[in-house]
Protein 1
Amino acid sequence: MDFELMTNSFPKLLSATVITLKLLSVSLFIGLFIGLIFAILRLNKNIITNKFAYGYSYVFRGTPLLVQIFIIYFGLGQIEFLRSTFLWVILKEPYWCAIIAFSLNTGAYTSEILRSAFQTIKPGIVEAGKSLGIPNKIIFYKIQIPIAIRQSLPAYGNEIILMMKGTSLASTVTIMDLTGVAKYIISTTFKPVEVFIVAGGIYLFMTFIFHNLIKFLEKKYSFN
Amino acid sequence: MELLAFGDTGWGDELFYATLMTIAVSVTAMFIGFLFALIFTPLKLSKNRFLNFLANSYTTIIRGVPELLVIYLFFFGGTGAVMFVASIFGYNEYIEINAFITGAFAIGIISGAYSTEVFRGAIQSIDKGQFEAANVLGLNKFGKFFKIILPQTLRLAIPNLSNVWQITLKDTSLISVTGLVEIMRQSYIAAGSTRDPLFFYSFAAVLYLILTYLSMKLINKLELKYNRGY
């Protein structure tokens, strides 16, 4: 055990953690909106939008995140006309490519979580709202969405942790996030175990925090 | 389409073998994962606090740390660890472990942590009466486990194991960083030499979709088989 290396690499890894957290929070935020939109499309009775939303979530959940990042980072730059549009400003940055890939990916999973949450809402609750004369729109925003959010908390907590682990793939497109820096230190010092303990410890700590945060929220918003 | 031709002119045969490699790694990893689950599930269910702690640390650490980091640990640390063990037995030559074994082992350990949780959940949800009935029938420990508990566990575990399989299959794409030529690595090589990354990565995505689709079909059949009588 090289304890000196461990103490020396800790601050470097900690500053890389900021990038990991940035990637995570931005993509979760965008992904939540994507997820909500596609969940609503899935519940829609229109067959075309329904099939489209289903196809979206099937493709993004059925392929590895690594492929998605590579398609966006290496693949999209190949399309000539994209290079001339303003989109190129975003797509030439690996950071934004990673965020796009992560958001689309977590959006697909979130849409499934929200869809099943909406479907488990008892029809009686909606009917109760209707019988009170509340307009459909208000029923949706003030009754269905809050209940769906509560229902999906446990599953969404898992998704946050999965996504946190997913952000490690950003290191494959030259972003120096926690895993990227860890790999750099490993490949320069050839001390994989020490670096793994420190970097893994930071990841575990984040998992611990998210896990307990979700648990707290679950308790706070429990029905009983 | 020319790019996908079989033979020397296209990448069809290379990608085909790469797909077989992906399947081989996934199946091996899943199998290694089952072995780990076989060891750690009893530990998780045991009343001994130390064994419990051991199994809990395994599943918590592996499920809380990114797969890529675990793969880097094995990729950079695997050779050293094996040579260290070999040196205890007096063998001091350089040992090279091939990428397949390292990769399958790394993914296997990850998949094992998920499988352990699935089996633990399945065994815990079996009715207590089943254990008691087996005792009443005078079955010995093995008969009780293999004839009564295991078949019921499998029925409950299959839907979740199918998720573990999907995760494992997708995780194998990460082994490409170690240089094992599976779908992702082959696409990377092809994309580099033809300068057509969009096509090859999209094709890789299609290959993964086909694999997940086919395995879903297969697992659904298995599920039906184990659900007979329910």
Note: Residues 3-220 of chain A form a domain with the MetI-like fold fold (CATH 1.10.3720.10).
Protein 2
Amino acid sequence: MEKRTVDMQIIGDWVEPGTRVLDLGCGQGDLLAYLMQTKGVAAVGVDLEFSRIAACVRRGVSAYQGDMTTLMRAFPERHFDRVICSRTVQELAEPKAVILEALRVGRALTVGFVNHGFWKNRVAMLLGGRKVRNEVYTTAWFESRPANPVTIADFEDFCAAHGIRVARRAHLAGNWRDPCPLLPNLLAGYALYDLTRA
Amino acid sequence: MTDDVEAAPSAPAAARHLAPGDVGLVAPRDFAHAAPFAFRGGQVLPGFNLRYETYGELNAARDNAIVICHALSGDHHCAGWHSPADRKPGWWNNLIGPGKAVDTRRFFVVCANVLGGCQGSTGPSSPNPATGRPYGAAFPPVTIPDMVRAQRLLLDHLGVAAVHAVIGGSMGGMLALQFAIEYPQLVRRVLAMATTGRESAQAIAFNEVGRQAIMQDPAWNRGDYALGEGPRVGLAIARMMAHITYLSDASMDRKFGRRKRRAAEAEASAFDVQFEVEGYLRHQGQSFINRFDANTYLYITRALDQFDLEESAGSLESAFAPVQAETLIVGFTSDWLFPPEQNRALALALLRAGKRATYAELATDLGHDSFLLESEELYALVRGFLDRPGTPTP
């Protein structure tokens, strides 16, 4: 099974059928197309690039080209049943503002990210002395967008400090497939959170 | 919009209409609606005519129609050539044709001159049956919804059961949105570009300057003038001014810069044409008066100013409440007449109303007229919107 498929499946499991979903940083609409097929959701994506919006249009996914915070501010509280922030949170200029705004317009928020506390990532830095590269971080530093190397521990602290309730969490091992129940900040390569306002 | 759409310069002049991807030679037709037609304002015409063109064939299910809506100064001739000698093809020839983004092998394309227009549809320059002279200022005030309702009657006449998409830029975008609001059962997709749910003060202001130029011309005579006569100076000035609002600082600079006409130094007067941009605008004004009626200009700019989806329904969301169509709104970064913000607002309101809507924004420096752009990116977007799986077969 593809790495991408596992996290899409978990995200999909947390989505109620027929609900209204917003995907922050929707790219070409892969995830939303999947959720439309499997869950019959009413989907909207947001992304910055014209070519990605055009790709969404081709597959019938509604999408908004522009800034995600501007988009969310245009909606009333709890307009969406779920907001999804998959593999995007680490690249946000103001992650806290986006997460809080997502919890305003959405009844629930899914966040998925690469755990930079994973031991291999620590070792890569410690012994290799090199920037982490994997399926999410595919490029060298000089051709990468600015990114926050967030860890599971960081994220848990953030939620606790901001009164965000963690309804569900999924920690995946270094292969991004198998569950990782033990010492996730050290042993999990990938993390998914299902959040609501406390 | 401007008159700048030119045929590909590489094609030999004699056979441009035979170029692959072109609909070729086309001829306009007339739809005469013989029953009374009530305008929103309450006034009634005994009937009306719409001049229109179609390309492609209506399929057996009668659900592959694409309605093209033109802008203020546009007309029904949006693709192909009226004669091999034509200098230019229809105004959206780059978008419409066999194999093009709006593929006439698959779709039945309909484009009509709007009610109130002057290119063959009934408008202020049409004869008033009561007097035998042109209606002039006695023509009923026409609105965007009036134009749409008249076109609906044309679609019924053509036997169209479902509209695959309504497409338009600028005023055409307003018509496209209005189509989806007025006829939710009929319209499956809307593609509105460089448009707005209501004009800003700036856009109204530009229209007002154009109207004043016309009305201050003594030849306007309160709208009462014979065919082929009228406020030619005023109309030309209105067009020159409006034309600037369709372009951008960057595109005018690229096209003209400060280049001067060669003979400029030798001109008799200091105020004859010196810069190329002046000559260009004068030419635009002059060519416009030969094809456009000043009263239609007044009526249609008024219709644009009056169009206000928010006011008509209390809010944009309420205005869009009936919409069933999937909507694609496209804004252009350099459009300062109907700027991206106003296009974005439409998409956001549709989404708030729970509709399927997409907003895409193209970075161009061509101003408002960018929607006529020859852009592979734009073509791919339009094609993707129209051709998704599940679209009707020819």
Note: Chain B has a mean pLDDT of 93.
